[in-house]
Amino acid sequence: MSAQELSNKGALVLVVTLLVMLAGVLVAWGFDVPYEVLWTSSGHADPCSEAFRHWDEDGEISTRCAKCHSTPGFIDFLGADGSGPGVVNEPAEIGTTIECVACHNDTATAMDSVNFPSGIEVTDLGDEARCMQCHQGRESTVSVNQRIDDSNAPDDDTVSSDLGFRNIHYAAAGATQFGSLTMGGYQYEGKTYDARFDHVEELDTCDSCHNPHSLEIDVAVCAACHDNVVTHEDLKDIRFLGSQSDYDGDGDEDEGIYDEIEDLKNILYTAIQSYASGTIGVPIVYDSHSYPYWFTGGGGRYSDWTPRLVRATYNYQYSMKDHGGYAHGGKYVIQLLYDSIEDLDTVLGADLTTGLHRDDPGHFAGSKEAFRHWDEDGEVSGRCSKCHSASGLPFYLKEGVTASQPIANGLKCSTCHNAIPEFTRHEVEEVEFPSGAVLDIGDPNSNLCISCHQGRESTVSVNESIAGMDLDTPSGSIRFRNSHYYPAGTTLFGTEAKGAYEYMGKLYNGRSRHLQVPSVDSCNECHDTHKLEVRTQETCRFCHNVVDGPRDIRRDTTTDYDGDGSSTEPLAEEIDTLHDKLLTAIQSYATSIVSEPIMYDSHSYPYWFYDNGVGATYSNQYRSWTPRLLMAAYNYQYIKKDPGGYAHNGHYILQLLYDGLADLGTKVAVDMTGMVRPPVANTMAECGDATHPYPPGDLNQDCRVNFEDIAFLGTNWLKDVNPQLP
After folding, report:
1. Which domain range does residue 105 map to?
2. Are 126 and 108 in contact (CB under 8 A)?
3. Which in 42, 222, 340, 681 has the greatest CB count within 10 A?
4. Residue-wise over 367-388: b if at least 16 C-beta within 10 A, else e?
5. What is the average per-residue pLDDT within 386-397?
């Protein structure tokens, strides 16, 4: 550092020191320092705490620790003292806390990004960047893996003297909030994790939940949405409606996320002790108040580390040292604990995860591909954002178009609710389907569901892609058309929506209706709105002999559709048989007619591949499509990706399968002996049906009450056909 730089730095240090001294003088003279009372009640201002007293015997705070345990150290890190930013250059003097000038200086207020220990930078943070510079921990998946790799341990269960406990450090709230995006916990290979926990927009940052000076939470704000919150202790009882899994397996799905985490921590600690004693042969105990936290049964520092034990103890400590983890990113913490238990159990073999649950139902499963697919892109493209981001659907409903949206950790309350805490929903009167059809299920709430559960292709788009082509001649211009996933709405509407491929000249069922039970005839009458499970006990069991679930339902028919001799098996099994036969026929056609064998993998995009031993890789995707092959493959995928199709419109699904087999059967041998195509039913919505009854006063029964009814009354006024009157 040059003499000039040293001079500048010395001047700035002097200014900082004078400002701190001036604040003390002003207080002594009775002048008010803004927020001083709030600040003095916080942990940031406690001069007696270990966080500021630990280095007293050393006489100075080391550069490794000064950034977050002193005001001069933080200013040094910022570069506000004239030194280079991003590193603490000099040890800091003892005796300071986190004082006003640490956060209130030009450099700090201009900062809006943070580099986490994983090496990942999070940008556009605003004021909370000042918080996350310290509340991020000091380790990550990256550093734990590096330590294990450097140890050259031959396997996960061999003790290595080069291994030791890795301590996340303390109050790593920022890392918990950002989850998999910053990898603060130990994330197991092959697993996916929740990303940033998104709260409601106005309460989604450090300083919008915590008072930035006292650090306290205003529980009255929480109580606006969360019932029975009066004290800070009550925050532990909060559970979002999207958290519908019994994570700890104790049978209680109503307890707070805090309690779910506490039970999982206990399970993990027991597993750690069992592994240390049984596999390593050296018992281990934990003490949250004594560094380095893990000890032998005799009280000595634990030193018999294996890679598997390092990972598990790291995550246990992680969960222990973010006391607000249940609020900062509870699902992420749950996943870390679950995976650590599961990993230890591969050795223990004690079925420790039986009854436990790792993830949420689909709409709130932030760790799943439906929401994590775009992490590397940094945003969800406009093509996908409507249904794969938290903000895309409200944007579409308002603007009528889609646009790129921020990546999300599952859907939020505001995705479906247009007012919080009233929790009213977006009103959707009708839905446009990929075929161009505009339909109304008769319930705005279900229309909201179908806005996404409609697929992305249709008979129309498939026909457009093969127009004018010979049915059995391969074309390089044909690509597989993927119906997309969970197109329940299009299945429900059948031929009205034409989401599946409907063969030319064939007739198909329209909307499937629960005519006998019109009160169970929409999405949220059959499915739990948040958990998404079918309301089997509340609805199905009253009319159907349900044993394990709705797949057991036969419905009111004795026809053996699949020709296997059974007319009593559930409708789902009739569909399964024909679905399997369709795949066999597809493969037979590809081999015999196209001369290019084909294979299917439901978990690998784009699902259809050459059956040549290479496997389900993108470069091996099937490209030898004929129009006839595409029609059948499209319907096979469509039915595969609506696993509830048997209930949504089972006879429509059977019609599709039958026609696909019959069409392929014109070119290859397909045994359809005994198979029956369901007859086309009049399921179209009609005036006067169970869900569209004649309104009172509708004298001419046209489902309208208007002057025509008055004219009808006038025309028939005084008519009398009562034979009992003179």
Report:
1. 3-110
2. no
3. 340
4. beebbbebeeeeebbeebbbbb
5. 96
451 contacts 397 by C-beta, under 8 angstroms: yes
**Three-state secondary structure call for residue 61:** strand
Q: How confident is the model at residue 516 (pLDDT cuts 50, 70, 90)?
A: low
Contact call for residues 607 and 600 (beta carbons, < 8 A): yes
Question: Is 635 in the same domain as 701?
Answer: no
How far apart CA 176 and CA 179 sit, in angstroms, is 5
The domain boundary residue, chosen from 314, 348, 382: 348
Q: How confident is the model at residue 718 (pLDDT cuts 50, 70, 90)?
A: confident
Domain termination site, one of 284, 318, 348: 348
Per residue in 575-629, pLDDT (tens digit) is: 999 999 999 999 999 999 999 999 999 999 999 999 999 999 999 999 999 999 9
Kindly state whether residue 367 falls inside one of the protein's structural domains: no
**Angle at which helices 627-641 and 645-664 cross, to 10°:** 160
Please tell me whether residues 539 and 585 are part of one structural domain: yes
126 located within any domain: no
- DSSP class of residue 380? B
Q: What share of the chain is helix, strand, coil (3-state, %, to 5)?
A: 40, 5, 55
Place of tokens 């020709």: 563
pLDDT digits (tens, 9 = 90+) for 411-462: 999 999 999 888 999 999 999 999 999 999 999 999 999 999 999 999 999 9
Q: Which of 173, 188, 197 is nearest to 318 (CA)?
A: 173
Q: Is residue 455 part of a domain?
A: yes
Are residue 96 and residue 214 in the same domain, yes or no? no
Choose the weakest-confidence range: 99-103, 218-222, 397-401, 546-550: 546-550
Please give the tally of structural domains in the chain: 4
Kindly state whether residues 83 and 221 are assigned to the same domain: no
Look at residue 136 and tell me if it is in a domain: no
CB 214 within 8 A of CB 325: no
pLDDT one-digit tens code per residue, 305-345: 999 999 999 999 999 999 999 999 999 999 999 999 999 99
Does one domain contain both 270 and 331?
Answer: yes
> Does the pTM of the predicted model rise above 0.90?
no
Q: Which two structure tokens, joined as six digits, stand for 673?
A: 């002996």
